[in-house]
UniProtKB/TrEMBL annotation:
Official protein name in the record: Geranylgeranyl diphosphate synthase
Cofactor annotation: Mg(2+)
Similarity-based family: Belongs to the FPP/GGPP synthase family.
Gene Ontology biological-process annotations: isoprenoid biosynthetic process
Organism: Ostreococcus mediterraneus
GO CC aspect terms: cytoplasm
Any single Pfam family the record assigns to this protein: polyprenyl_synt
Amino acid sequence: MMASSPAVTRCRATCAPVHRSRGSMRAKTTARRAIQAASTEAAQATAEKEFNAYIARVNAAIEQALDKSVPMMYPERLHESMRYSLLAGGKRIRPALCLAACELVGGEMETAMPTACALEMIHTMSLIHDDLPSMDNDDFRRGKPTNHKVYGEEMAILAGDALLSHAFEYIGRETKGVSADKVVRVIVDVAKCVGSEGLVGGQVVDIDSEGAGPENVTIETLQYIHAHKTGALLEVSVTAGAILGGASEEQIGKLERYAQSIGLAFQVVDDILDCTQSSEQLGKTAGKDEAVGKATYPSLVGLEESRRIAADLIAKAKGELAGFDAEKVKPLIGLADYIANREN
C-alpha cells in the first residue's frame, strides 16, 4: 500500500474541516431561516387575530348605529326598502376605515360614527342603483335578491335617493364635539366624491366604455373608472375620519395617498374575483364583466400582472402609514391586507 504524499496529507488536514465548516454554516443558515419564517408566520397570525377581534368589535358598533340611523316610520314601505339594503350585511369597509382613521389621529370613535354610517348609506345607494335593470341589471347582492327584485324598480330608485339625502342630513345633525368648519369640510368632501367628479363620473365613463372591448379601452381610462366609481368613496372614508379626529394637513395628505392606493387595489382585486370566483362565493353574479364586454385589469394586462399590481398598491399604501403610532395604525394595515386577500 502506497503512503500518501505530503501534499495529499496537507489537503486532508486542511480541506476536510473546511467542508465540515461549510456544511455546518449551511445548516445554521437553514435553521436561522426556518426560525425567522416561523417567527414571521407567528407574528402574522397574531396580527390577523388582533385585526379580526378589532373588526368584530367595530362592526358590532357599526351595525347597531346603522340600525338606529334609519328607523321604521311612515311611509313604511320606503323605509323598509332602505333598511333592507342598508342592513343586509356586507364588509362595512368604508365605515371601518373612517373610524380607524379617526382613532389613529387621536379622535374618538363616537365622533366619526355618524359620518361612518352616512358613508355606508351612500355606498348602499350606489349598490341599489347599480343593480337596476337600466344599469347592471343584477338579481342578487350580498347573497340576497336585489332591492328592485323585492320592492320594485320605482321603490328601489326612491330608496337610493332617500339614503343619499339622509346621509348628509345625518352627518350635519348627529356629529357632536367637532367644530362647524370641520363638519362642513367633511360634507363638502363627501358630496364631491359622490358627484360628477367622483362616483357618478366614474359610473358614466364605465357605461360609455361598456361593450367597447378591452382592446379599445386604455389602462388610463380603466384607472379613471376605478379611482372614481369605487376609489373616491374609500378615499373620503379615510380622510373624513382623519379630519373629524383632528389630523394635521400633513397627516391628512398621507392618509389620502394611503386611501387612493387601497381604493384602486380594491377594484383590481374585484376584477380578479369576478373572473376567478363563483356566484355563490361572491354573493352576486360572477363573470358579468366579461359577458358585457367590460374592460377589467385581467382583460387588459392578464391575471398575474393584475395580482402584481394589486400587491404593489397595497405595499405603497402601507408605506404612507410610516410615522404613525405603531399600535394605532394596525387597523389600517389590517384593512389594507383584508382588501388584498378578500375572497368576495
